[in-house]
Amino acid sequence: MDKKITKVLIANRGEIALRIIRACKELGIQSVAIFSEVDIEGVWVRKADECYPIMGDPLEAYLNYDTIISLAKKADCDAIHPGYGFLSENADFAKACGDNGIVFIGPKPEHIALFGDKMASKVAMREIGVPVLEGTDEPVIDKKEGAAVAAKIGFPVIIKAAFGGGGRGMRVVLDAESFEEMFDSATNESLKYFGRGEVFIEKFVQNPRHIEVQVLADKYGNVIHLGERDCSIQRRHQKVIEIAPSPSLNSDVRKELYRVSTKAMFRLGYENAGTVEFLVDESDNIYFIEMNTRVQVEHPITEIISGIDIVQSMIEIAEGEKLKYMQEDIKLRGYAIEFRINAEDPQKNFIPSVGTITKYLTPGGPGVRLDTCAYGGYKIPANYDSMLGKLIVSSLDWEGTVKKAKRALDEFFIEGVISNVPLHREIVNDADFISGNVTTSFLDQKMEAFNLSAVDSLAIEEKKIAEITSLINKINEHRLSVRN
């Protein structure tokens, strides 16, 4: 075992910063938060043992790793946890941590670099024997060259940012006529978000399921999986709802996904947490698409069905501990669904909704977990992602999990900003969702039929309360008139 971690700086914000603080507290580790000038009222800032402001541009506050490492050294931190987003998949940052004697809680820099390069990772996985989609192995910059490649592969194709993810710099091209326009759109967005405009092109699979496998690996060659997650419900290639395990996956396909994922991570000598992502087509063929070298937004549903605390496991692996569990010890139990609660308007192309939350009533009860940084009176900054938190529900069977989701979403009420809670309510009442029959085209096919202007259950309750109050007042008035 390497040196025991005693103090962790969290190079992130929002609900994931709070999640890491909680994991540290349970392990007896001190936590240090950082915050931009617009995040001074953040819950995680108050919950951490120490906190430090980073002034200047609010977005750059969580990207300036020289300043972050300097603060970590100033606070005598021996480790940094990057969370997700921001610097979490920045190989230079991970290396700089090590160069400064600080433990980076995550994979080795070379693995972050490998999987950050979508084409190099595809080549590496193919050499190991993992199925990949037909496409380019080298970056494409010229649109004429790209058009020729696409024609050779055969439409439809998908253009993807070579050095980024999260749905950014990604465009589906259905025919040759629209290729150049889509190519320009993808490269411009890639340049804006990742600083590089290179893209790669591959065959587009229509109506697939997006399935990912959670892995954990230590420094001693032990690799395990914690089951899969179905992330097929997406909008603009960004996940909206995640399910663990997939309610519709063939058991043979499931076993094969587990096998190739753990084999690949073992062969590469991967360490710490990671997520191997696949497309599964209508014929149950599997294709590797990318590897995320960090904790995922949707990690809670895997924690629930496996009983394994993934964030704590990341810290323990970074300390040099062996995995506490081998594969035969992992018993997956029941189902869990995560709903990303975003401040955005689904009726207006999911445009972010910025403002102050005036009322925030959250669900609870058995089988309900809420990871959030929001509260009544919280002012949502315009500088970051629109996610307010994650509602997670679980039960021992799929039917019970769906029922619990309906009940929990009916209890959720956000006032002051527009949220996607009404969209989630529509989804969980959809027949295809209830049957577990979802693909990546689910939302595109369903959005027009969803009624997103329905009256909130809380509004109905408030109307009832008003009616009851009015009735009580009339009774009191009657009593008073009788006495007189």
3D architecture notes:
The chain is of the alpha+beta class and 484 residues long. The protein folds into four domains: 7-105, Rossmann fold (3-Layer(aba) Sandwich); 134-203, Dna Ligase, domain 1 (2-Layer Sandwich), CATH 3.30.1490.20; 212-333, ATP-grasp fold, B domain (D-amino Acid Aminotransferase, Chain A, domain 1, 2-Layer Sandwich), CATH 3.30.470.20; 338-453, D-amino Acid Aminotransferase, Chain A, domain 1, CATH 3.30.470.20. The chain has helices at residues 14-26, 43-47, 65-74, 91-99, 109-116, 118-128, 143-153, 179-194, 251-268, 299-306, 310-318, 398-411, 421-428, 431-434, 442-446, 457-483; strands at 7-10, 30-35, 50-53, 79-81, 103-104, 157-161, 171-173, 199-203, 209-217, 223-235, 238-244, 272-280, 286-292, 335-342, 344-345, 351-352, 359-361, 368-372, 387-395, 413-415. Strand 2 (30-35), helix 2 (43-47) and strand 3 form a beta-alpha-beta unit. The chain starts with 6 loop residues before the first strand and ends with a helix.
